[in-house]
Amino acid sequence: MPSLRFLPTACALLATAAPLFAQVQDAPPVDVSTMLKDVHRLRDTQATQSKQARTAALQQVNSTAGSPERAAAFWEEAVRAVQFQGAAKENAAFREWKDKEGEALNSALGRNAARLFFMWMSITIQRDGGVTVKDLLPQIVAYTRELTADEQGAEALDDAIKHEKEMAATTGRRPVQQQRKASETDVKKMHDQILKRALSSSAVALWLKLDDFINPENWEKSPGNLDGIYTTIVLPELRAQHDPRAIEYWDLKLKKDGEAAVKTKLAFDLDKYNTQTRPALLWSRAQEFALIGQKNRSISEMFAVIKNNPQNPSVPDWTSQLEAILVPPPPAAATTPSPSAAPALPGSAPELPGSK
Questions:
Q1: Which residues contact 280 (CB under 8 A, 6 or more apart)?
Q2: Which of 8, 55, 194, 260 is deepest in the core (most CB within 10 A)?
Q3: Would you call 315 helix, strand, or coil by DSSP?
């Protein structure tokens, strides 16, 4: 229990401070009309400045995306500014990075990855600024085609790296690298670092302070995620337009996964593709026809998948889905409310059974 000997002193302090508290008063009334004008002016000024900053960023990104060499050089400058705090080009730490990891930017695959990065950043900035997916679709589809070609080049490099490792394991010798030439492993690492991460975590976005311009909703933030770009952006838009190009995605998946299964030269992988992966992709492809408005084509394709893959473990689920389409359940019988029942308020949720 605190000592009572301090109580008189505390009471005296409060008594002294009481008049001071009584003197504190509210500020005079504000001029509402003038303040509202100032608020609106500040809001409009901020909106104008933000629009100007977005336009300037888009112009800079578009200019960089037009050349693999400019894209690679800009990426290098961003790394220097962010990771090395803007150190001089002669700085030992930055020079060491440039001679090792940064050397991969001089490769064709590294430069093209940088170019694709800026292409996707440009499209993302436009979408964040309010341009519709419908209007951006030609750019996005063109980008996916270039990204598909890039993936093929990256896969070829992966194959070369695996071959080098096999040769090294067989002969005990490592491949000799030319002076100041990045290894294939370094090139692949740089390629993935540029394309496989989110735009917002890149040195470019941090350097240019673009975080407010590259965050649209329902959007793929990684420039190298082809499947994500299709499933999140392209397919929903093509379905809305009943565009048959949506089927091309599933054809691409079938071709890509089939080639990957053959490449391993393993009977197990090829059998798995033929008995599990391929039928599942064909089923998704069949469903896609319904999503673009071709219901009859979808039903025929679904039936063909079931007929040609009777041993697939998904057949029971597939047949249930097809039956639901062929013989939809009868509509629920309408119930007549009792006269004593109170009418539901507009927008109110119905009462669930057993909720009381």
A1: 314
A2: 194
A3: helix
Residues with Cβ < 8 Å from 224, sequence gap 6 or more? 113, 116, 147, 150, 192, 194, 195, 196
pLDDT score of 2 more than 60: no
User: What would the mean pLDDT of 197-209 be, rounded to a whole number?
Assistant: 96
265 and 231 in one domain?
no
Q: Give the structural domain span for 248.
A: 244-326
Q: At what angle do helices 108-128 and 184-195 cross, to 10 degrees?
A: 0
| 210-242 pLDDT, tens digit each | 999 999 999 999 999 999 999 999 999 999 999
Q: How confident is the model at residue 195 (pLDDT cuts 50, 70, 90)?
A: very high
Buried b (16+ CB within 10 A) or exposed e, 53-77: ebeebbeebeebbeebebbbebbbe
Among residues 193, 190, 177, the alpha carbon closest in space to that of 109 is found at 190
Based on the fold, state whether residues 121 and 150 are members of the same structural domain: yes
Does 18 score more than 80 pLDDT?
no
Q: Structure pTM? A: 0.78
Q: How far apart are CA 181 and CA 159, in angstroms?
A: 19
Q: Are residues 210 and 288 located together in one domain of the fold?
A: no
User: Does residue 354 have a pLDDT over 60?
Assistant: no
**Angle (nearest 5°) at CA 53 between 76 and 83:** 25
> Which segments of 62-108 are extended strands (E)?
none
Q: What pLDDT is recorded for position 49?
A: 75
Do residues 176 and 253 both lie within one domain?
A: no
In this structure, the answer to whether residues 144 and 260 fall within a common structural domain is no
Co-location of 190 and 51 in the same domain: yes
Q: Please report the DSSP string for 165-230 in residue order.
A: HHHHHHHS-PPPPPTT---HHHHHHHHHHHHSS-GGGSHHHHHHT-GGGS--SS----TT-HHHHI
| Residue 169, phi then psi, degrees to nearest 5 | -70, -30
